Amino acid sequence: MFHDQSNAIANLSSSERVCAQVRNAGDLITPELRALYRLWLEKSGNRPVPARSDFDVPELVPWLPHIMLSDYLDDGNDARFRVIGTWIVDQYGKDNSGKTASEIDLYGRTQLILSEYKRTAEAMAPHQICGPFFKHSGAEGLREAERLLLPLSKDGKTCDKFLTAVYFING
Q1: In the chain, what are the helix, strand and coil shares in percent, each to the nearest 5?
Q2: For residue range 20-31, what is the model confidence (pLDDT) as tens digits?
Q3: 60 class by beta-carbon count within 10 Å (0-12 exposed, 13-18 middle, 19+ buried)
Q4: For strand 161-168 and strand 67-73, is the pairing parallel, antiparallel, or unpaired?
Q5: 154: left (phi over 0), alpha (psi -120 to 50) or beta
Q6: 162 beta partners
């Protein structure tokens, strides 16, 4: 499923994913991701993107179970999943905190995921990814998920981390 410009949800085949730049909160499906996007914008101020240090853990409490903090490595050829929220771990079925994408068997989706990170880093703009949710076994879940990929930067010029949140978009 993905969110189209008319705020409707359209069906995709179960193996499809959509990655699109977010230009405003209305581009997002879930209210939780719209609120997180607004916080990210607020923290950006007059910079292209905020830094990780701009966020305090207490203000992220509403999203903590649903967020991941990742390091952007080797010009997009890898990413380290520093922190993975408990809801994501429970749904995925495994905790890969501290591991890199290249260390994890993502069942043929590693390059796709890294390309979404690279696209977001190069644009220095948030991206929405909608598509099927996969378990660590490689089995596709019956649920569609919306991910919000938010770039972070220490120097305001180069993406060095991502704040990502994941929510299901169908019952």
Answers
A1: 35, 30, 35
A2: 999 999 999 999
A3: middle
A4: antiparallel
A5: alpha
A6: 70, 151
